[in-house]
């Protein structure tokens, strides 16, 4: 699978110093490298978080609450991995703006980065209720714990928080990939990953959903690698030479 169709690897990004010469500090390279590593870590943490999610008998609220209370250690592990996966995504995805070269993508890439970063922040915060609901399930009767959960989720503030957070889970990665493909940074073929991954929800095998979710977020590894490539000494020298 082709990972990129970036046609312009060299562009001047260094800001002039007070003397009029390009700024040769390592900050831009560091930011690119850190963001690239964050985006590569995102699918790994996310998949691990899904893989360790406590099993539940059904999608009913009562079964969900019961699953969180059944194994507090597993609940904490899964919630922690998922929380930090979205933190990594929220921080790393903003750096994709620096991958744009030329006029194409100058609007859609920043828009995709900002929208998905905001949604990821929302989603990461929502993981906190896994700890609280799990604790409730082990503190009060299950029916009361379920009532607490249903009442909290029904609140307009929480439901809006939930919907905005889920935006990145359903369309965030495809939106980022489509924007970067429009800018010529990655291949349009990468969109096949989330499309095929979504089909995993309908495959009647035990690991179908896990495999589908893992495949859906895998393209961010390519984006992270692109950022790491732009942080290399060779690219930095070419950028400074073009300044």
TrEMBL record:
Transmembrane intervals: 29-53, 73-100, 107-129, 158-178, 185-203, 209-228
Keyword Protein biosynthesis: no
Coiled-coil segments on the chain, per record: none
Keywords for the protein's UniProt record, in alphabetical order: Membrane, Transmembrane, Transmembrane helix
Domain of life: Bacteria
Name by which UniProt lists this protein: DUF4386 family protein
């Amino acid at each position: 699978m082709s990972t990129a169709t970036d046609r312009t690897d060299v562009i001047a990004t260094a800001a002039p110093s007070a003397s009029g010469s390009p700024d040769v500090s390592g900050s831009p390279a560091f930011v690119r490298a850190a963001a690239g590593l964050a985006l590569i870590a995102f699918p790994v943490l996310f998949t691990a978080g899904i893989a360790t999610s406590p099993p539940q008998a059904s999608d009913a609220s009562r079964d969900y609450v019961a699953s969180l209370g059944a194994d507090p250690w597993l609940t904490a592990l899964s919630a922690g991995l998922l929380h930090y996966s979205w933190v990594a995504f929220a921080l790393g995805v903003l750096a994709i703006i620096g991958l744009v070269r030329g006029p194409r993508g100058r609007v859609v890439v920043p828009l995709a980065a900002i929208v998905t970063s905001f949604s990821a922040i929302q989603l990461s915060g929502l993981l906190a209720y896994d700890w609280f609901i799990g604790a409730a399930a082990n503190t009060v009767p299950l029916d009361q714990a379920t009532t607490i959960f249903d009442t909290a989720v029904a609140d307009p503030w929480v439901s809006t928080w939930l919907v905005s957070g889920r935006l990145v889970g359903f369309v965030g990665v495809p939106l980022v990939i489509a924007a970067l493909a429009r800018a010529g940074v990655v291949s349009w073929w990468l969109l096949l990953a989330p499309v095929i991954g979504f089909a995993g929800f309908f495959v009647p095998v035990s690991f179908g959903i896990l495999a589908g979710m893992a495949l859906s977020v895998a393209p961010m590894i390519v984006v992270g690698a692109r950022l790491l490539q732009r942080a290399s000494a060779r690219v930095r020298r070419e950028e400074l030479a073009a300044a």
